[in-house]
Amino acid sequence: MLIGTLIGLVLFGFFELLGLDQTYGGIIDALIVGTLIGKTIGKGSEKYTFFSIFTYNLIGWILVFLLTSDGKIALQYGGIALSALVGFLLIMVFFYSIIGSFAAFVASNLSRNKEDEGL
Amino acid sequence: MNFSEIQIIGEDETFKGSKSKYVWLFGGIFVFLCFLAMHYSTYIFFLFPISEGIPYSLISYIVVLSIGPFIILITSFDIVSSEIETGSVRYIISKVHRSSFILGKFFFLFLVFISVSSGIALISLIYQYSEGNVFQLKNIVLLWIFSSLYLGCFISIFLFISTLSVNNKISFTMSMIFLGILIFFFLQGHDNYLKYLTPFFYGVKNMEFMKGFPVGAGYLTVFESLFSMFMYMLVFLSMSLLAIKWRDL
Amino acid sequence: MAISTKNLYKKYGSRFVLENLSLNIEKGSIYGFLGQNGAGKTTTIKLLSGLSTPAQGQIFVDGMDLSSESGKIKQILGLVPQDSGFYDERTALSHMVYYGRLKGLSKKESLEQSKVLLDQVGLGNEMFKRVGYFSHGMKTRLGIAQALLNDPKILILDEPTNGLDPVGIRQIRQILRECNNEGITIFLSSHNLLEIQEICTHIGILDKGKLIAESTIEKIRHLESNGVITIGVYNLSFGMISLIENLEFVVKTELKAEHTLEIFVNSRTDVKPEINRLIVESGGQVFKLIENSLSLEDAFFDATGIKL
Questions:
Q1: What distance in Å separates residue C157's CA from the closest CA in chain B?
Q2: SS3 state at B198
Q3: Residues of B in contact with C49 (CB under 8 A)
Q4: Which of B90, B138, B231, C305 has the most crowded Cβ, counting Cβ within 10 A?
């Protein structure tokens, strides 16, 4: 989970630097991290993926707000505007986590040589 | 791939499905909702400013677009996962090819919902005829084909998720989650490429053909749309085949 | 050979559950696959029946490679899995007809064969009953009946007598003997030694994914030792024990009490006079000298160090 978070954070920064659209970047990042964690952990990887993606997105966005010029401008607005932005971001991060968890589910169940606990 | 094995599995699924009250209930609900929408179409006529009378086929199609995915989810989320959960899959896979198992299940569901689409198309036709509207056979046929392919896309999606799942609970949860993801992708806006990953996009695009069939080179766009939906179905079906092939049972 | 495997490996993740498994199951035999829980018996059965794929190695069934001719192999194989996975709401006959059709029989042929097989396994009067109302023993018999559809050459059973009462176990044994008499090769897994002893002609012992012994039932008994001699000596000393252990036919000794020693021997001739002479020459007074043949349980323990 820790490695997934770190990889996610690195990719988050990478996509930010590239200037990739945040929706695409967030989804691609979530898919990559989800697939990695799903293949590595196997059964039960969905919840680890969810927390991992949520964590690195939170950290990433906090860093964006604190370190980038756009982020600092957004912070200056304060009040309702900032709350709305944060709320929107939380919803998007939640969706990325869901997408990543689904990717982990597919990756863990699509692997060969997986002991079938259900049977 | 063995066609007789596919046929036997599909037939048995039909036999099981015909005894299942849920198949009849949800199929019936589906047809009934379309019937209701057409029956009260005069109240929603203002949404379709078309001079050629009430577009019964378009109204039915919109009901299929909106309700169809949920009906498919409920009827097909456990098509493979229930067999895996109970262990009955071992008796089948020890006798037939794994691909036949998946294809048999898929064709059963596809046939069921083609029948449902036929029922909806027939009701549209009857309404059209009874209201004295111009006979639009093209629209009825398009309704039938587009509905079947649209529902086929969701059948292949939920079949794939069911194949991955070890039990019905996980299958249902993941199916709901994936449907939510598709809706999320579709709602991302016009400039977003994510909508191309959803059957909703192709379904909504087909509505244009229901409003007025294109002439000349426009036929190509219809085939393009049909081909896209067919490919979408094929991708998820292939993934289901891959999933069952790699899986230890 | 009915079934043979060559250097079979199976792993889940990074953990090997089967290592270098090379089985040889003769045609017409009843092969007992013995091992503790978690040894890899069910995994082996899944590999042999095509429910699972090996990480490495080859499986041949009736001379055909399972990886390339699985369709043909499935037609000559009958599988009885450990847990019955029948549909509760369907009747026994309905199940049989369905599985018969999957095995390539026509509906009519499937119906006819199903009725005969259900009679054979003692479910003739229950064929129209829903399987949900069946007892565990009845489900096991139904499992065997469906495996016998379309006259398989090989029958694979995963712990068929698990959870059955003595009457049920006897019935299953009888059915399997009848099948074997008709020329069907039987491969069954169990951790029940008595069952293996009663019915099997050959045995393989699996321990932690490795085949540690494979032979006929009789030869297994002679694997490490073929007999145990219990000797009672009034003035038994460690010197005497050491002398006994140096005898070439002695596998090991175990001191059971101050004056009682168990000697595990591997010999085709009577060794009691030699042991007796050795003890007397050492100054010992023998008051008891009894020979017992080794049970399969003892042989298993000798081979694995594990008590079942």
A1: 12
A2: coil
A3: 94
A4: B90
Picking from A97, A108, A114, the residue whose alpha carbon sits closest to that of residue A29 is: A97
A118 in a structural domain:
no
Count of structural domains within chain B: 1
Residues of B in contact with C9 (CB under 8 A): none
Residue by residue, pLDDT tens for chain C (308 residues) are 889 999 999 988 778 889 999 998 999 999 999 888 888 899 999 999 999 989 889 999 999 999 888 888 999 999 999 887 898 889 999 999 999 999 999 999 999 999 999 999 989 999 999 999 999 889 999 999 999 998 999 999 999 888 888 888 888 888 999 999 999 999 999 877 777 877 888 888 888 888 887 877 766 555 555 678 889 999 888 888 998 988 888 888 888 888 999 888 877 678 888 888 988 888 888 898 888 765 656 666 666 565 54
Radius of gyration of chain B, Cα coordinates, nearest whole angstrom:
19
**Helices B168-186 and B56-76 meet at what angle, rounded to 10?**
140
pLDDT, position C269: 75
Q: Which two tokens stand for residue A110?
A: 């699509």
Candidates B27, B68, B107; CA nearest to B202 is: B68
Element (H, E) at C189: strand C185-190
User: b/e per residue, C158-179, with b = 16+ CB within 10 A?
Assistant: bbbbbebeeebbebbeebbeeb
**Angle (CA) B177 B180 B183, round 5°:** 155
Token digits of residue C279: 């003890």
Which chain C residue shows the shortest CA-CA distance from B248?
Answer: C52
Domain that holds residue B173: 3-246
Task: Using alpha carbons, list the distances in angstroms from residue C256 to A8, B110, C236.
Answer: 65, 73, 12
| Optimal mutation site among C9, C12, C56, C82, interface A, most CBs of chain A within 10 A | C12
* Domain-embedded: residue A36: yes
**What domain count does chain A have?**
1
Sort out which chain B residues have CB atoms less than 8 A from A102's CB and list them.
174, 177-178, 181
pLDDT tens, B118-175? 888 888 888 777 776 666 777 788 888 899 999 999 999 999 999 999 999 999 999 9
Residue A117 lies in a domain: no
Q: Do A42 and C11 touch (CB under 8 A)?
A: no
Give domain status of residue A71, yes or no.
yes
- List of domains in chain C: 3-220 (3.40.50.300), 227-304 (3.30.70.100)
Which of A42, A113, A114 comes nearest C55 by C-beta? A113
Minimum CA–CA partner of A42 in chain C: C13
Q: Do the beta carbons of residue C39 and residue C205 sit within 8 Å?
A: no
Is this complex scored with an ipTM above 0.95? no
